[in-house]
């Protein structure tokens, strides 16, 4: 992991130094490459505090940063507050194209719905927001807070096939609506893409804007949705797929309303893909079920990579930690994808968490034999390390999943 971080992240960090100088910021002991190394080490090595980090850095190198024997806790804390956090975001945006360029060359199975969508759209994306955890009240100005404040809210756009983040944004207000991110979402989603999102992003005007920009979207429909039926496409005992009008005035627009009845519940979806061959009913339902992959990503960055714990209450430092966690997440996903290829298994069958936790055993193996290939080692020992996911046991109270919908051909629609 250290080798991959150094190979992928360090060059991208050096590429931002000239931009840093262009901001008029003078060079210090804690330069941008050093700060990226320090913050990544906080996360990667799960160092408990800034004080502990300072003790480590005084005696040993961390990533590409040499030992800094005169380093103080105050200097690191001040740099977390004042070094523009956007630099970390620029590093993240620099490495993502590099990682994406590796992805098409890898040979491993994709879910059928995702593979089919990849062939019809320029990108298949998921967008969702998540509230960040509470800040520690012992930090700075938070000492006198009556209750623990939340750290804010993030919005992520994730590539469904590769699982890499396209964009990550932060807002300091934790209780605001996801709709505050709409302007940034519209600007970030490329023409020809398919984007999947949940009810929190219900906005007829924004949907119409996406349609005008050549973006296909898929979401859930609210129970109180008002609509006017235009045309029926599919009508069976379990599935109805219709073209309807929604909205009023400038937001009035035609969409497809898909209703699937399963286990006594009706699941309702909306999409602006009006032509069945472009987004068949079965594929639309299957793709929406894949929306949960963004929740998996949030779980990884919070629970596994430590974004549930913040080293500083300063908004700039939270930005910095969020994007540094994105860097670590992207490199970990790249490693997991390489293991999936070596196993010839779908990415979804490989546990990102157990790949991360198994790096301890990789370290020992490399220490004994420096020629050990980490990816090959993880693949060869995948079962004993728990890297291959076991079939999930359904809880007694859990609702069964929606059964698959048989693909319907054009000739069957009459």
Structure characterization notes:
This protein has 15 helices and nine strands. It is an alpha+beta fold and 414 residues long. The protein folds into three domains: 2-82, no CATH class; 86-295, Transposase Inhibitor Protein From Tn5, Chain A, domain 1; 351-388, no CATH class. The longest helix has 29 residues, at 315-343. It is globular and about 75 Å long. The termini are far apart. The model is unreliable at 135-148 and 408-414 (pLDDT under 50).
Features:
disordered C terminus, 15% strand, globular, 3 domains, Transposase Inhibitor Protein From Tn5, Chain A, domain 1, 9-stranded mixed β-sheet, 9 strands, single chain, 414 residues, alpha+beta
């Amino acid at each position: 992991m250290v080798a991959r971080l150094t190979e992928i992240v360090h060059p991208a960090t050096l590429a931002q130094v000239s931009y840093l100088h262009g901001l008029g910021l003078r060079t210090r002991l804690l330069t941008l490459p050093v700060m990226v190394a320090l913050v990544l080490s906080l996360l990667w090595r799960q160092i408990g505090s800034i004080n502990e980090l300072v003790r480590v850095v005084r005696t040993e190198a961390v990533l590409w940063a040499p030992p800094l024997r005169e380093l103080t806790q105050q200097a690191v804390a001040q740099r977390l507050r004042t070094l523009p956090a956007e630099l970390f975001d620029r590093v993240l945006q620099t490495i993502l194209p590099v990682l994406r360029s590796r992805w098409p060359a890898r040979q491993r199975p994709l879910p059928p719905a995702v593979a089919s969508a990849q062939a019809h759209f320029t990108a298949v994306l998921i967008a969702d927001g998540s509230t960040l955890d509470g800040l520690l009240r012992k930090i700075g100005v938070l000492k006198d807070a009556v209750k623990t404040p939340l750290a804010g809210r993030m919005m992520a756009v994730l590539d469904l096939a590769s699982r890499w983040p396209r964009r990550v944004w932060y807002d300091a207000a934790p209780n605001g609506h996801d709709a505050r991110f709409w302007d940034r979402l519209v600007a970030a989603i490329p023409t020809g893409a398919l984007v999947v999102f949940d009810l929190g992003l219900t906005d007829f005007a924004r949907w119409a804007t996406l349609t005008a920009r050549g973006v296909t979207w898929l979401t859930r429909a609210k129970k109180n949705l008002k609509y006017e039926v235009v045309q029926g496409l599919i009508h069976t005992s379990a599935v109805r797929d219709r073209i309807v009008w929604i909205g009023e005035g400038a937001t009035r627009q035609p969409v497809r309303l898909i209703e699937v009845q399963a286990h006594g519940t009706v699941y309702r979806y909306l999409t602006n893909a009006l032509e069945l061959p472009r987004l068949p009913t079965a594929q639309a339902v299957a793709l929406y079920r894949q929306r949960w992959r963004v929740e998996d990503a949030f779980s990884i960055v919070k629970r596994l990579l430590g974004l549930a714990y913040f080293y500083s209450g300063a908004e700039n430092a939270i930005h910095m930690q969020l994007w540094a966690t994105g860097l670590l997440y992207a490199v970990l996903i790249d490693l997991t994808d390489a293991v999936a290829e070596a196993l010839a298994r779908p990415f979804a069958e490989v546990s990102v968490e157990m790949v991360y936790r198994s790096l301890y055993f990789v370290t020992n193996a490399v220490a004994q034999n420096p020629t050990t290939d980490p990816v090959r080692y993880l693949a060869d020992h995948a079962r004993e390390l728990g890297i291959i996911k076991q079939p999930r046991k359904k809880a007694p109270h859990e609702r069964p999943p929606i059964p698959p919908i048989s693909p319907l051909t054009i000739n069957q629609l009459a």
